[in-house]
Amino acid sequence: MAASNMLSCAELDSFIRSITHCRPDLKPYLEIQLGEIKILQAIFEQDKEFMIDNVCLEKAKNYMYKNSFEEPPLLEYFIKLIINNLLLEIQVHLPKFYPIELPDVFVRCNQFARNQQIRMNHDLRSFLFSLETGTVCVYGCILWINHNIGNYSKRDEKTIMYQFIEEKLFSRYWIYSYHIFSKEKKREIICLAKKYNITGFCLPGKPGIICGEGSDNDCFEWWQKIKSMTWKKILCKKIDQIRYDANSNKSLRKFGNFTEITFSCQKNNKSNENRMNMGKFYYYLLEHGCAYIFKDYFRIDRL
Fold first, then answer.
1. pLDDT at residue 291 above 50?
2. Structural domains for the chain
């Protein structure tokens, strides 16, 4: 969009909303999700190795096959495996439009030191981001874990921590929540950002948007703390990663600190009370050199 032809915030807000109201049909994505779950249930023993909330699963099936009008909750399940005498728990959260959107896959192993677990999940996440968009990948993640678990169990914590620091990886996490209204959560997000030296912003409302940037290790731990809070829906939409020279004085940060921002519409009625002015938000991102992320957040094909 040329600078001379830029729309006002109000015009852009109206334009964006006209596009985002045309949501893609959920059913094709849900059909893929349910098909993958059926395969996993055939591979792994029910309730012992593979665990899923059957109420949520039935709601998804009713929406898909019985024309229920109630949109189902996001699907989440756990897989427990023993590999190389290590007990692993793999937690999987599927976003609404998986496999177009990447799943959130996290591995826990009580036999690992903290930094071994951090390193393994860091590499698993890098594997996910290396896949072609639209890949059905949960079983692929399990195969990756099976093939690579020895790389982490054979090294001690000091070696892993040293190699992790030496990589010098800068990250920027783009997080999407169904909504952020809780004052306690907003305070905690800001406190955690200070603790982990994270810069960026938190945009409360519906939806809630969070951006955090810093060292990859700090961002990863910050995100794990945020994710562990109680949410109706929260997921990491995108991660920007940049390798950098430790001796460089050039800052990779696009934000000077971590702040709470607001871009509310005029409150003409109750339905607009917590609605974000997306035009103002877009120009805020533009000012900070991050306008590219808007399409990832709101699935807009043109802007």
1. yes
2. 27-159 (3.10.110.10), 168-298 (3.30.70.100)
